[in-house]
Each structure stands twice: as C-alpha cells, then as structure tokens.
What we know:
alpha+beta, Lipocalin, Beta Polymerase, domain 2, ten-stranded antiparallel barrel, five-stranded mixed beta sheet, 15 strands
Amino acid sequence: MSIPASLAQLVGNWIGLNRLWLSPGEPVRISDTTAAVALIAQGRFLTLRYTWADEGQPQDGLLLIGQEGQENIFEAVWIDSWHMRDTIMHCQGSLDVQGSISMQGSYAAPPGPDWSWRITIGPEDEDRMHLRMINIHPDGKEELAVEALYHAKPDVEIVPYKNSWPTEFAALATTFRQGLGELALRIDHIGSTSVPGLAAKDIIDIQVTVAALDQNLLSAMEGIDYTPREGIWRDHRPARMDGPETEWEKWLFEPPPGQRRTHTHVRLLGRHNQRYPLLFRDYLRAHPATAESYAELKRRLAENLADPLTYPDVKDPAVDLIYLAAEEWAVATFWQPGPSDG
C-alpha cells in the first residue's frame, strides 16, 4: 500500500531545532536539526533521515516506515547514533485524525522490565513538521524525551550577481548602526553578495564586530527585532588552524519578520573567525578568476547535490582552499582590513 497523503506531503528537506530532555529535572539540551523525507520503492515506503547534536557532537538517525496490508496499520524501524547506538527498534502504529503517525516500540532497561518508546511524525501546519519521542515507564507514565520542530528548507538557488546587493546592505547597516551604537565596532558586508560580479544565494551576509558577546549586545539586537539562532555558537574551523575553540565562537541572528533574507554574524574583534570573512572577501575582489571558479563550484553543487542539506558541508572545504591562498596573498601584500563598511 502507498504512503498516505498526509505523510507524503512531508517529502522534502527541513531545518529546525531539536530539544532533548534526559529527565524531567534536567535542563533541556538544544541543537540545530535537519531532516530529509523521501518516498522509496514506488511510494510504498517513507524514509526520514535527520541530524542533530548533543553537547557539540554530531548525531543522526533514520526512520523507515511502511504500511501493512491492514488499513491504517504501519510498521517502522528506527536507528539513531545516540539513542539506539548499535541496535534497531521495531515499531508499530497508526495515523490519527490530524494526519500524524504515532508508532510505539520498546527497549531493554536491565534489570527491570522493558520500557516503551513512542515516536510521532506529522505536519504542524503549512510548511512545518514535528518529530516527537516519548519515553514510557513500565507503569505507563509518559515523559517527553525529544521534540524536533521543523520548517521547510528551500532548495539551494544560486543567482547571478545583483547590483542591488550593496545598496540593500547599506540600508541594513544603517539600522545596525542606529540600534547598536558604539557596541558595533565594525559593520561589514561579507560573503558572496559582497564580491562584485559573483553569483550567490540571495542572502546578504553581514558581520557585526563587537568587543563582547554579552547581555547588553543581546538586548540591543532584540531591540531592533533581531532574534538569535539557537544552537549555532561557532563557525566551521578550517584544518590545522591553531588556537582554542573560542577563536571560532559567534552569535548568529535572524532578521525581523517580513525583512529580506540575511545572515547576521556577530563576532569578536581580533578572533580568527572575525578576520576570515574579511580576508576571504578582499581576496576574491582582487582575483576575479578565482571568484568566477568559486561561483561555478556553487552552481554545480546546487544543481547536483542529492541532499541540499549537505551544501555547506561540501562547500566549506573548498572555501578553506581559497582561504589558504588568501593567507599567502595577505602576507605578500601586507593586507589589513580596510575601514568598516557601515
């Protein structure tokens, strides 16, 4: 039998936040999560692959769901690198009236009786999905263990350079300058949209350089309706970069509702990750042939990656290769960051 429409509509790529409760009395652990839902075997089965993290360590899992011959009876197998490790859980369940599927399995808890585990998946509303996992005591008491809430992730689209990008950045920089005042030591246009002629995703990257990541800064950002992205506290660290992990710490902020898409990275003055995007940008501006090759790489990744969620993971090492060349160029030219853009 085919997967019902309420689940088939979930096919696609998703991003969101994962919340994990080890026990009711412990603080919730929050991380970013991604999910990819697909139909296989001519629509008879559904797979849900997801990623998350626990204390900074990457984790992932998979659900394979199919319908038995009986109406509204579903079977599933579940694996997860953290919860199940090297074992497999078999689950059985059904659809509810809202179109969500609820499946229940069990796991051993020596020396006592087995515990039950219920997984629910389904649409929340348009372009939103939930994945919840409930721990069930042998006496029937239920405790929410995992709640992952997702929104649809758009496909990666690389567009030709837009002459409007610098003007749009300038308007955004004015908002930051007025809202942050002296807290913003620099406000810079970074990323691909900051390089003339370079094709890019239509997302303006902004770097706000500060002296401290503290409550004053957070309050100022929230005062101009920017909200922090939970679960993102640091940048990708290139291979063989010296220094402590603190060199790659940052805050990432989402724009106010209704504003054009932006990524606002707040980093500390003098840290490796604050220097990296400025040098990378200036190197591409000075080397248009390299910028053109970089644009072609991004186009091919966007067109050919089977899983768009892996786009940044594949792109980051290529960016590091360019950055290594940029460091040599910086030494040869005595490069230093120019004045703030905003």
